[in-house]
UniProtKB/TrEMBL annotation:
It comes from the Bacteria. One of its GO terms (cellular component) is cytosol. This is Hydrolase. Keywords: Hydrolase. The keyword Hydrolase applies. Gene3D superfamilies: HAD superfamily/HAD-like, Putative phosphatase, domain 2. One of its GO terms (molecular function) is protein tyrosine kinase activity. The lineage of its organism: Bacteria, Bacillati, Actinomycetota, Actinomycetes, Kitasatosporales. InterPro entries: HAD-like_hydrolase_sf, HAD-like_sf, HAD_sf, PGP-like_dom2. The keyword Hydrolase applies. It holds the Pfam family HAD.
């Protein structure tokens, strides 16, 4: 089996804050309900339902999830950018004969739109999974490494028995990621190829 690396999407591979900010602004305009988009984009990671529950009563959350997802492709894909080193990280895995899979809490169609728009070219994209639930896809794809920015990503890696590699490009700094149990902490994905080269070489020698 080739070495397989899982990657989170939001704030690991892509900076989706501009697009998500624009989507929340549009949702607010359509519903007449004030949403602090500046605050919302500091809390990316958990499922959408978690954030919408701050702004809408429980009986409206399901409706607002559907409304947000209808708006999202028009407002969020174009403004969102690849984070530094994202493409190189995926290509480094491929160059070593490995596979990469994006495992994200974002709904899968939107995740696919993002990676296609940015030309990131992972081998697979799996959506709808958060924290420990990410282990389902990581195990299915045989991922031995999972790279993410959130504490929930560390929990997902642990649940899958994968190495938890964290990047400090999301809401947590390097100290917080280490304290949460990350096996490896990188400042961002520009540091991933060098780390991966050493890891992959060691994995091959151990096989």
């Amino acid at each position: 089996m080739p070495l397989t690396v899982g990657f989170d999407l939001d704030m690991t591979l892509i900076d989706s804050r501009p697009g998500i900010h624009a989507t929340y602004r549009e949702l607010s305009a359509r519903t007449g309900v004030w949403i602090d988009a500046d605050l919302a984009v500091t809390r990316l990671g958990p499922p959408l339902e978690h954030e919408l529950a701050y702004w809408f009563p429980p009986e409206r959350v399901t409706e607002m999830v559907a409304a947000y997802r209808e708006i999202y492709p028009t407002h969020a894909i174009e403004p969102s950018l690849a984070l530094p080193g994202a493409g190189d990280a995926i290509q480094a895995v491929r160059a070593a004969g490995g596979r990469s899979v994006v495992v994200t809490a974002k709904n899968e169609p939107h995740a696919r739109l993002h990676v296609s728009h940015l030309g990131l070219e992972p081998d697979a994209v799996v959506g709808w999974l958060w924290a420990e639930a990410k282990a389902e896809a990581l195990r299915e794809h045989g991922a031995t490494v999972y790279v993410g920015d959130h504490l929930g990503d560390i929990r997902g890696a642990r649940a899958a028995g994968a190495l938890a590699v964290s990047v400090a490009t999301g809401p947590y700094d390097e100290a917080a990621l280490r304290a949460a149990g990350a096996d490896v902490v990188l400042p961002d994905l520009t540091a991933f190829p060098a780390w991966w080269a050493a890891y992959a070489e060691g994995a091959v020698s151990r096989a």
